[in-house]
Amino acid sequence: MVTPPIDPRKTLGLRVKQLRAEFPLTQEELADRCGLFRTYMSRIESGLANPTLTVLHTLAKGLEVEIGVLLTLPEAKPAAKVRSARPVSRGRVSR
User: Fold this and answer.
1) What is the pTM of this model?
2) Would you place residue 85 in the very low, low, confident or very high pLDDT band (cuts 50, 70, 90)?
């Protein structure tokens, strides 16, 4: 039986979700920390975006982890969604 190849974009997305749940941060809060659009953050987590090396470093800085932590394989799917007490933004978060 042949194992299907691992899609690095989906793996990164799962890892970002897992780290957000550990800290706990919403997509909006992480997008704000990284200076990214929330919709782009959503595409990264779903595996639809192909982030550049600069964005990978920005995500690691926003999560306050080393880039190697961000690039390790996720152990499991994140347990639950993280909810925020602040209103949800639609697009770029104000600073």
Assistant:
1) 0.67
2) low
